[in-house]
């Protein structure tokens, strides 16, 4: 029986570098926001009259989700610092930490999409300052744009708080593999 070969010419068996889940990069979120901003600007440029007016509370749900993620981030950070991670009662279960990372990554993308979308709308509204409807919609677009940025920042904060603590043996210089055990 033969083992399956790796999918790339340079990969060795057991090489998982391409499959690691890393922290969300701000650069990637910026690319998403710019692409969505351009797409929304094009959409609204040709169809502005078909859209209803924007209420200034239109982006408020982004702030609510961001606030929840910040609070959860502080709770997770406290539990990680106090080493309250495990399966015991009152501890943060590792599966829940993984779910929070997934929530943070999804929220960061949602924040980038929202910020980009509202930015595209706002650019169009600023270009059409002579229209009364465009002037009235600016406040809603600004609230949504800031809400998207706040949500992305809160999601990055939550993701940061969910990081695994560093290896404890690396912090303790006395117990390196080559050093003799400490005297009793």
What does this molecule look like?
The chain has 184 residues and is mainly alpha-helical. The protein has 5 helices and no strands. Helix 1 (26-47) packs across helix 3. The N and C termini lie far apart (53 Å). 28% of the residues are buried. Mean pLDDT is 81; it is low at 1-5 and 167-179.
Reconstruct the topology from this structure.
Layout: H1 26-47, H2 60-81, H3 94-127, H4 132-161, H5 168-171
Helix pairs in contact: 1-3, 2-4, 3-4
InterPro entries: DUF3180
Pfam family, one: DUF3180
Keywords: Membrane, Transmembrane, Transmembrane helix
Short description:
This is DUF3180 domain-containing protein. The chain is an all-alpha fold and 184 residues long.
Number of strands: 0
Amount of beta strand: under 5%
**Category by helix and strand content:** mainly alpha
Uncertain residue ranges = 1-5, 167-179
Work out the radius of gyration: 23 Å
Organism: Gordonia neofelifaecis NRRL B-59395
InterPro entries: DUF3180
Protein name: DUF3180 domain-containing protein
Keywords: Membrane, Transmembrane, Transmembrane helix
């Amino acid at each position: 029986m033969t083992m399956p070969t790796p999918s790339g010419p340079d990969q060795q068996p057991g090489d998982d570098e391409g499959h690691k889940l890393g922290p969300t990069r701000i650069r990637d979120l910026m690319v998403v926001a710019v692409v969505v901003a351009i797409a929304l600007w094009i959409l609204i440029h040709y169809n502005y009259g078909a859209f209803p007016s924007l209420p200034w509370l239109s982006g408020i749900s982004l702030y609510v989700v961001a606030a929840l993620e910040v609070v959860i981030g502080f709770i997770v950070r406290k539990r990680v610092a106090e080493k309250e991670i495990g399966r015991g009662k009152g501890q943060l279960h590792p599966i829940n930490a993984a779910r929070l990372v997934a929530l943070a990554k999804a929220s960061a993308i949602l924040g980038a999409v929202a910020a980009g979308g509202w930015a595209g709308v706002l650019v169009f509204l600023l270009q059409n300052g002579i229209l009364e409807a465009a002037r009235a919609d600016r406040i809603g677009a600004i609230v949504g744009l800031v809400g998207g940025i706040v949500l992305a920042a809160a999601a990055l904060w939550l993701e940061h708080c969910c990081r695994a603590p560093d290896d404890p043996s690396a912090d303790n210089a006395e117990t390196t593999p080559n050093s003799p055990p400490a005297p009793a």
